[in-house]
Amino acid sequence: MEYRRFLAQPGPMWIGPKSAQRWSEHWRPFEGPLAPRSRRAAEVIVMSMCAWLVRVRYLDSNAWDMVPRSSRALPLGELRSLSDRQWERVEARLDAQPPTPATLRLRLMFHLGLATGMREAEMAAARAEWLRLDLDEEGMPAWNLRVTGKGGRQRDVPLTRRLVQHLIAHFRRQGLLDGAQAQPNALFELDPATPLLSALADPMRPMAPARVYELMKTALRRCADDIERDDAMAAERIRRASPHWLRHTHGRKFVEAGGDRGILRQNLGHASDATTAIYDRSEARRRRREVEQVFG
């Protein structure tokens, strides 16, 4: 079908730089060929529009009814997450940067995404009032984050001690905590309206989800550029990655470490067990191992 072929290869006249503003003569609707998922999403939008036009009697029929549906499936075996080694390369680059306010905020973004599995929109919306103090098995302070996710559903996500230290370092650099407030319970001193991720010039002004995405995507791209020469495969994977991949990396690491899938479902706020099940690769690996033993 021509529309599908167009989305896969829009042609030079439809492609422009991402940086071009909509009012610019250089603006174009595409940056390049759409990824399979994006093409599928575009089809669904157009199909839905045509179905609505039929319902309101603007069209007599929906031409999409005669078009074979494209597959929704990802390529076999693909999970959009970073491997442990790829994450180590990203983390090493973040740690190598001077501890400026921008760098501390960027480190917090990545560790918040990995350690909690939060979506970037949830990270942008998070406030200090979401923090909940509890005690662990040893009676030590332990923080949770009460996340408001899709559909307004709330879930409590545990925060690791390391992530809490990233929060404290970020807020100290923002001037919201003084140097003496290094203990975990120092987060109690924050104004409840304080965003966890804020503009550098105004610590009370939250970041937009698009800005969170942009900064994290840029950091991933720069990391890929840095390691291109000595690890081209990792660089290619990191360059493709988006902030949402950290959510999938969280799920993959949790399951591979033997974590309970029910707990993971609660942490990620999935409505269905089937969604969480994509992170369990044990059956595929067992099949591969047994085939290798027999035929390898």
Automatic annotation (TrEMBL):
Domain of life per record: Bacteria
Domain Tyr recombinase: 77-293
Key words of the record: DNA integration, DNA recombination, DNA-binding
GO biological process, one term: DNA integration
Record-linked InterPro entries: DNA_brk_join_enz (IPR011010), Integrase-like_cat_sf (IPR013762), Integrase_catalytic (IPR002104), Tyrosine_recombinase_XerCD (IPR050090)
GO MF annotations, alphabetized: DNA binding
Family per record: Belongs to the 'phage' integrase family.
Protein name (database record): Tyrosine-type recombinase/integrase
Protein source organism: Piscinibacter aquaticus
Lineage of origin: Bacteria, Pseudomonadati, Pseudomonadota, Betaproteobacteria, Burkholderiales
